[in-house]
Amino acid sequence: MPQVVVVGGGFGGLAAALRLAKLGHEVTLLERSATLGGPLAEVSAGEFAWDAGPSYTLLPAVVRDLFRKTGRPVERELELVPLDVVREHRFEDGSSVRVPSGRAPQLAAFDGLGAGLGQRWVDHVASYADDWDVLRRGYLENPWRPDHLPRDLAALLDSRETLHKRLRKTFKDERLRLVAAHPLVAEGHDLRNVPAWAGSTAYVEQRFGVWTVEGGMARLGTALADRLATRGVTTLTGTEATDLVVRDDRVVGVSTSGGVIDADVVVCAIDPRRLPALAAYVLRTMPAIPPVVAYLGLEGDAPELPHELVLHGDPTLVVRTAGRAPSGASTLTVHGRGRLSEDILRALARHRIDVRAQVVERVDLSPRDQVERWGGSPLGVLWQGRATVRRRLGPRTPIAGVYAAGAHATPGAGLPFVGLSAALVAAEVGPA
C-alpha cells in the first residue's frame, strides 16, 4: 500500500488526508503545533474564544462534498447556517450598505446608495458568470497542467486586465469600487497586481451566499480532526517537517524534527518555502501579509452589528461578531489594515463603536505573530501580476510524487478554494 505523508494540519491538510485515506492509502499527517486546524481553530483567553481565521465560508457544497466523500454527511455533525447579510459596508461620507445574498436583494440594497447603482452593481456581478464557469470547469474542479490548459482558461489566465482597471472602468461611484474590491484588499493585495477575473468572488457570494457553522467555524476543524481516526490516519502533532527526502528526482520520505518518515507520496499543505526542496520553485512569489487583529472579550452586550462590518478609511477596519462568551458577555474581532499608528480600539471608537470600557479580555496578534503561530501566511500567495497564478505549486509539483494543497496552492485563500485544492490532489493521486 502506498505510504502518503501529508505535511500540515490546517483545513487543506485535513481535507487531503481524509480524501486520500478514503481512497485506500496509508496516510500519516504531520503538524508542527500541538493541535490541528491551523487558522481553522480558536483563539482563547479566559472564558472567551474566537474564530482564529475565517468566520464564514462560500460554496458550502465544497464542505458538504468533503464530508460525504469521507464519511457521514456534514448535516449529521454540524449545522451550516446561511447569513442573511454577507457584510455591511460603512463609508467615510456617512453612507452605508448591507449586502445580502441574491441578485434581487442586492439590486435593492445598492439602489439605496443612489438611483441606478443597484443595476450597475448587478450588471458588474453578472459579468463574472462566464469567468467563473471557465475557472470552475478548467481550474478549480478538475486537474490541470500548466502547459496544456483549455483554450478558454489559458485566455482568461493570460488576460492583462487588472481588477483595478476593471473597477475604474465599471464604476464612477467610489463606494461600489470599495465594495467590489474588499475581498482582495482584505487579504492584503494591491488591486493593480490582481487579475480582473479574481473579482469573481462577488459572483460567488451573490449566487451561493455566505455560510457559517453554528457554534463557530472551529467546530468544522474539530469535526475533521476527529474523523482522522475513523479513516485510520496516523496523526503526529508537535512534529515539524524540515524538508523532503528526494532520490533520482522522486520523493522517498520527509525529514522531520523526530527523524525521517518514508513516503511514496507527499502532500505539501503548508507554505512550500518551509521545505527547502520545494522553496527553489517558488522564489518568485511572496506570501500575502495578514492584517493586525485584536480579539476582544467584552463585559455586557456588544454593539448590534452584522456578522461582518467593514469600516472604510485609513485604516480600514473589519469587525466580526462571531465567538463564544460566558453569560452576560460578548465578543468582537477587529482586523486592521493601513495606517495603524494608534491603538486599533481608538481607531474603532472614531467610527462611533467604542467598546474600550467593556474589554475584559484581549488578544492582539500582529502579522508576524500570525505567521509564526500558523507556520506561514493563512492568506496564501500575494498577487504580483497575472503570472502569479502560474507560479504557484499545485496540484502537482516539479518533484515526482509531491503534490500541493492549501492556501498557497490556489488563487484564493478562502475555505472553498483550499478544499477544492485538496480534492484536486486526491484526484491526481488516485486510489491506492
How does this model look, in words?
- The chain has helices at residues 11-22, 60-70, 103-111, 117-126, 129-140, 151-157, 163-170, 174-186, 201-208, 218-230, 276-279, 344-349, 367-374, 388-391, 415-429, and strands at residues 3-7, 26-31, 42-45, 48-51, 80-82, 85-90, 96-100, 211-213, 234-237, 241-247, 250-256, 259-262, 265-268, 292-299, 308-311, 316-320, 329-337, 359-365, 402-404.
- The chain is an alpha/beta fold and 432 residues long.
- The protein has 3 domains: 3-40 and 61-80 and 217-288 and 377-429, 3-Layer(bba) Sandwich (FAD/NAD(P)-binding domain), CATH 3.50.50.60; 103-203, no CATH class; 292-373.
- The strands form 5 sheets. A 7-stranded mixed β-sheet has the order 7-6-15-16-17-14-18.
- The longest helix is centred in the C-terminal third of the chain and has 15 residues, at 415-429.
- The radius of gyration is 21 Å and the shape is globular.
